Amino acid sequence: AECAIGQLGGLTETGFWWDYITGVEGGMGGPTIWFLVFAAMVMACVIIGVNKGIEKLSKILLPALLVMMVAITIYALVAVDGTLDGVVYFLKPDPSKLSGGTFLGAISQIFYSMSLAMGIMITYGSYMKKSDSIERSARNISLIDTAVAILAGLMIIPASFAIMGEAGVSSHGMGLMFVTLPQVFDQMPGGSIVAPVFYLLVIFAALTSAVSLLETVVSVVADEAKLKRRKSIVVSSFLLIVIGIIVVLGFGPLMTDLSPYDQGAGVLGILDTTTNSILMPIAAILTCVFIGYVISVKTISDEVKEDGCEFKFERPFEYMIRYICPICLAAILVFGLLDMFGIFSVY
């Protein structure tokens, strides 16, 4: 609310963000209210349906998102002194900063940004036409995802580096988004205008992702419980609200101290760490094993080549799914578990 009216002063106060999400700092309706508003928006999109909901939403929001990202990036590069040094800092490789944690963090980001091991790709794939090229779609998704990730980095890192130095880009996740960036916007020329646009962009991105996740749950519940779509939406939405409120209150009244599992972020930290380090790698390994050794890779290849579609990378795909991916994923799982339990740190 303060950001929307161009008042960034309160957001830059030390501890404001943490005080707000834990309930110490009142105002702005409280995080639970805003969660319910956001959940209602997500449920409305799913109720409308994939074609009329997420598809139309994506056609509007994602191009708008891209335009806003490009505009903010150009503005930051032009208006903020020292951003070119920030660009060099962002793009120039520094081998001394590489560690096992770097690769684990990158893999975790790939899981989320590409929606892997969550069932989202399978759910959306079920709505594709047989004539659609799966290989071309996979290639385009990978290229676009990488390009947007680089653009997001150019939008955030150079300005943060120029205004706050290396310390400004050392934080990550919620710390970078809601603690560091408000300070950057507050010192940026025209930051009171750029900040609301940026956080609107974040809401757009979160909305499309959340709709994808709820749609997957709705589809699975409908198939497994033999429910009609409307009833499946009701059940899935109820679970969304209950679990979501627990997570929101997990920063305050339900705050837990289960270090190292909570990672300093209450219930959200526990769920985030468990998902990143255990559930998604296990789901990905089981998927590789199932495709490579149970139903056979040929089944997938035949599906890709239906209606005369090409599969140029059929042989590399077979080796990746049967050998390379399971080994790499198993290593990620083992090191993630060792790091989570404090036995061996990869950072």
Mind explaining what this structure looks like?
- With 347 residues, this protein is mainly alpha-helical.
- It is built from 13 helices and no strands.
- It is globular.
Please outline the helices and strands.
Blueprint: H1 16-21, H2 30-48, H3 50-79, H4 83-91, H5 100-113, H6 120-125, H7 134-164, H8 174-187, H9 191-225, H10 229-249, H11 266-294, H12 297-304, H13 314-340
Helix pairs in contact: 2-3, 2-9, 2-10, 3-7, 3-9, 4-7, 7-8, 8-9, 9-10, 11-13
Helix content: over 70%
Largest sheet features: none
Classify the oligomer.
Answer: single chain
Class from secondary-structure proportions: mainly alpha
* CA radius of gyration: 22 Å
> How many separate helices?
13
Strand content: under 5%
Q: Which word captures the global form?
A: globular
Question: How many strand elements?
Answer: 0
**Residue runs with pLDDT of under 50 for 5 or more positions:** 258-263
Kindly, what is the distance between the CA atoms of the first and last residues, rounded to a whole number of angstroms? 37 Å
Order of helices and strands: HHHHHHHHHHHHH
Mean pLDDT across the residues is 80
Question: How would you sum up this structure in a few lines?
Answer:
The protein is mainly alpha-helical and 347 residues long. The protein contains 13 helices and no strands.
